[in-house]
Amino acid sequence: MNRRRLLIDAGNTCLKWAVVEDKQWRAQGRSDYADWAALTVQLTAGTPCFIASVASTAQEQRLAALLGAAGISAHWLAAEADLAGVKNSYLNPLQLGVDRWMGLIAARGRTREPVLVVSVGTAMTVDALSADGVFLGGVIVPGIRLMRQALQQGTALIAETMGHWQAFPRSTADAVESGIVAALCGAIQQQHARLVEASGSAPQCLLTGGDASMVLPHLALPAEQVPALVLEGVDCVARERMAR
Fold first, then answer.
1. How many C-beta atoms surround the C-beta of residue 92 within 10 A?
2. Is 99 a catalytic residue?
3. What angle, rounded to 10 degrees, do the helices at 144-154 and 172-199 form?
4. Residues 187 and 121 occupy one common structural domain
5. Residue span of the structural domain in which 132 resides
6. Both 132 and 215 in a single domain?
7. What's the predicted TM-score (pTM) here?
8. Is residue 244 in some structural domain?
9. I need a surface site. Which of 23, 99, 165, 191 has the fewest CB within 10 A?
10. Three-state helix/strand/coil letters over 63-89
11. What phi, psi does 70 have (nearest 5°)?
12. So what's the pLDDT on residue 2?
């Protein structure tokens, strides 16, 4: 697939993008919703754009207007029941977040072994994929910033002070930060153990999302950080759609 294409992963707080051509990722970047200059210079009329978005309606409308003004056809992706070797076992397949769906598709493209797909962002999702490509299900928990905000807003004595991870914290700020990391790691490790039990073998663990690097060093299991995992899934779907 040699045709140029633009891939976009529109998240809650920012969007990531990549330009792919001749099977090569020519450019990649991250743009805050307040400044799309880096993305704008990559826009070329006639380029198909494939988008996985969990952004607000207002941000999606802004993005659609930007792409339309540049003469770019936008393809807004959504979860499906079965695609690219992945079977969606959600009770309502369309309800699955498209970012999670793209992460699962990318994981399937990387391995035929059981795999745990973890995205650490505004929320953290931990999704299990079997060796035969079945999405078994997953959990959603608040991410680092949401947990921190909940403690600051829901208690009287926890101030808005940034702490640091410590094995045995001796300040409130460090206790908050260390507790948040412990909670997230615990959710990942519990789902990992459940997937081991379900599959009978040790699954791979792939981490993505803006806060993945804050969790990865503290996991008590092997894991690989893949920053562009969602975009990899978007590209897999883009190649399939463009080949039709």
1. 9
2. yes
3. 130
4. yes
5. 91-229
6. yes
7. 0.94
8. no
9. 23
10. HHHHHHHCCCCEEECCCCCEECCEEEC
11. -90, 0
12. 55
